[in-house]
Amino acid sequence: MNKLSRFFPVLALMLILSACARPKGVIVETLEPPKIDITSEAALEGDAVMQTIIIDRIKTPNRTLISDPQVKFYVRQALEQALTDTQVFNFSGPGAQMNAPRITTVVEKFIVEPDKLEAGYVTRTGVAAVSFALTSSSGHKVGSTLETARIVNRVQAGGQLKSKEEIMRELAAKVCKNFVKKLVPTRKKQYREFATGNSDVKKGIEAAMNGDWDLAIEFWENAVAKDPDNHAAVFNLGIAYEAKHKMRKAIKQYEKARRMDPGNALYQKTYARVKEKYKTHKKVKRIKQEIEEESVSASD
After folding, report:
1. Between residues 167 and 63, which one has the greater pLDDT?
2. 1 pLDDT tier (thresholds 50, 70, 90)
């Protein structure tokens, strides 16, 4: 017992030191860029700015794979609703005279199969395959996708099946929602590790850990004002702006920190992650150019 009692204080001290040495970080909700990216920069920054998309005439090239001529109406209605639900896009018809991205929709297959009776159950199945292509206002193809859907309605013999119209509307809603999801940023929760530093940096970390990002930004901006080479404060500002969905500012801070301390693995890893996600977005190129211009101005 004597030996054990002497061991416990040592163990407790080891645990305390281990906890103190562990890097501090937070879980932040970040904006991931769209898979098909024509979202305005304002929308990527989390601002409520509407962007208009033109919906071209919907095409049905193979009528033998279309159950009902109303299919085009169902798909168009579902596409308009899906765009409206994003609260990012407005839409206009094919005759609109404006510079705006265009959606071209081709219904490849859209059928409700004949009912099947088997083992005392009746099954009604709907199948859809719809191609969507997005072009920029200048005519450049931004992206395309084939969305498919299958709806199976099964009831006991004598029960009430969904109507053919209900199934077709559900199919249209499903393919259109899946397509539109690819046009808007998505929110994900990710872990971010802070860079350690002087007292202002540490105070900022504590404020961020308590959820007060505005106060954290104030501490880190003060740290940079006192010492422009304080790369830890610069890096942590990137985390703060990312947490506030200000990706333009976040990328700029991550890029600056990486340049200030090229050998820092945390900075390089974080910058590489952001660069990979936003490499197709024009904002990264503009931010790099801005930093280059700032460096030139500072040296002058």
Report:
1. 167
2. very low
Ordered domains of the chain (ranges, CATH): 25-33+187-290 (1.25.40.10), 47-183 (3.40.50.10610)
210: how many CB neighbours lie within 10 A of its CB? 11
Query: What is the distance of C-alpha 189 from the center of its chain?
Result: 11
- Is pLDDT above 90 for 258? yes
Q: What are residue 140's DSSP bridge partners? A: none
Closest CA to 235 of 257, 217, 206: 257
How many CA atoms does the CB half-sphere of 70 hold within 13 Å? 9
Report which residue type is found at 132.
Answer: F
> Taking the complete model, does pTM exceed 0.70, yes or no?
no
Angle, in degrees to the nearest 10, between helices 265-278 and 247-260: 140
Greatest extent of the chain over all pairs of C-alpha atoms, in Å: 89
Single-letter amino acid, residue 83: L
pLDDT at 155 over 50: yes
* Burial class, 266, CB count within 10 angstroms (exposed 0-12 / middle 13-18 / buried 19+): middle
